[in-house]
Specification:
Lipoprotein; 4 strands; elongated; 188 residues; alpha+beta; Nuclear Transport Factor 2, Chain: A
Length: 188
């Protein structure tokens, strides 16, 4: 009987060690994720280099063009207010989306509403056959602003390849969350 108890005790201890190792690995992974989120860098960037792990690097001219496109005024004050409130997330999202050059990039998830998931298969560069994927595409225009609800803003981003001249239009929607933050819903 004592021998059976000793074997049982040994098996229990071995099982606890295995569970403990698994929890340790999980905890290390969560710690790494927490450090990345605390760094303030968008997803897909490395805190050591500040460079994107996936995608291309946006040029200063392309960044300025996005900002200029967000400094527009419509004839609707509610839309103008929504654009002003949501422009930081729209700017960050447009920068990220214009540089996605593969299906593994998850940089858009940072700007997505809870429960949503962005599919990078539809990123503008993915359908541009002749564009050099080492370069970001340019946000030519933000247009078609509308508000289907007081807390939702819809618009279209027109992307252009400066290299090949190819054009891709993408419809988007941002929704104001209960905490006041504007986040993207999956493509409309």
């Amino acid at each position: 009987m004592k021998g059976l108890l000793a074997i049982l005790f040994t098996l229990i201890i071995a099982g606890c060690t295995s569970v403990n190792d698994g929890l340790k690995t999980f905890n290390e992974g969560m710690s790494s994720l927490n450090k990345t989120l605390a760094s303030g860098l968008p997803a897909g960037q490395s805190s050591q280099t500040g460079q994107r792990r996936f995608g291309s690097s946006i040029s200063q001219e392309q960044e300025l063009k996005i900002k200029a496109n967000l400094n527009i005024k419509t004839n609707d004050n509610a839309i103008n207010q929504a654009i002003a409130e949501s422009s930081p997330v729209i700017e960050s999202f447009a920068k990220a989306e214009s540089c996605i050059n593969n299906h593994l990039d998850s940089s858009l998830e940072l700007y997505t509403a809870p429960g949503g998931r962005m599919n990078t298969s539809y990123a503008p560069m993915m359908s541009m056959k002749y564009h050099d994927r080492s370069k970001c595409v340019t946000v030519e225009k933000l247009q078609g602003w509308s508000m289907p609800a007081r807390n939702a803003l819809q618009f279209e981003i027109v992307y252009v390849s400066e290299i090949s001249g190819e054009v891709k239009k993408r419809g988007h929607e941002v929704v104001k969350q209960p905490n006041g933050e504007w986040l993207f819903t999956p493509q409309i």
